[in-house]
Amino acid sequence: MMITEKARLSNGKSVEAFKPQYFVNSEQLAVESSELAKKENNDCVVRAFMCVLDLPYEQAHAWVKKELKRQDRKGTFVSAYCKDIIGKTKNGKKINYIGAHPSRNFLKYSIGSDKILVNKQYKKATGYTLKSFMENNPVGRFMLIVQGHAVAVIDGVLYGNRDEQYKGLYRSVWFGFECK
């Protein structure tokens, strides 16, 4: 299954990008549906949970603020507080921790789980990139943490920032959650 194609940027440069059917701009979704989203910064965790839990932006914002101790217009330190949401149910979806990248196993101390998220295509314990995760998980609702950022993957479609359509392909998945 090919989920990428060659695309041309506005500067004329040719790049690999997710095909349009495999990418949704979550920032645009949030801003089009919420006045609060227009005032926010560093809200990728809110937008990822908005998408994966199928919540309005305001509800996702309030939930992340309460459960993950997020402050308005500031980022969320998911690894510090995520053990508080593992096993909880929100909007009929139970949040399950799926594991961490093999090089990030130190997260087991803050998350409280030693699950490793391994790409089974390789003999050696290798983690996923966003692209390989999407290809290997075409069904399901996932909230993923990559370096300094959060995205949602729903049924093989990436919900992220506008430029992730071409910049996010090979970002390493540090850890993640499945919501079902």
Question: Explain this structure to me?
Answer:
The structure is a single chain. By secondary structure, this protein is α+β, with helices and mostly antiparallel strands. 29% of the residues lie in helices and 26% in strands. A seven-stranded mixed sheet has the order 3-8-7-6-9-5-4, with helices on both faces. The chain has a two-stranded antiparallel sheet with strand order 1-2. Strand 1 (4-8) and strand 2 (14-18) form a beta hairpin. Helix 3 packs across helix 4.
Rg (C-alpha, Å): 16 Å
Number of helices: 8
Described by strand count, sense and barrel closure, the largest sheet is:
7 strands, mixed
Distance between the termini: 24 Å
Pattern of helices and strands: EEEHHHHHEEHHEEEHE
C-alpha geometry: globular
Give the class from helix and strand content and strand pairing.
alpha+beta
| Percent strand | 25-35%
- Strand segment tally: 9
Whole-number mean pLDDT: 94
pLDDT < 50 runs, ≥5 residues = none
Going across the major beta sheet, what is the strand order?
A: 3-8-7-6-9-5-4
- What share of the residues lie within helices? 25-40%
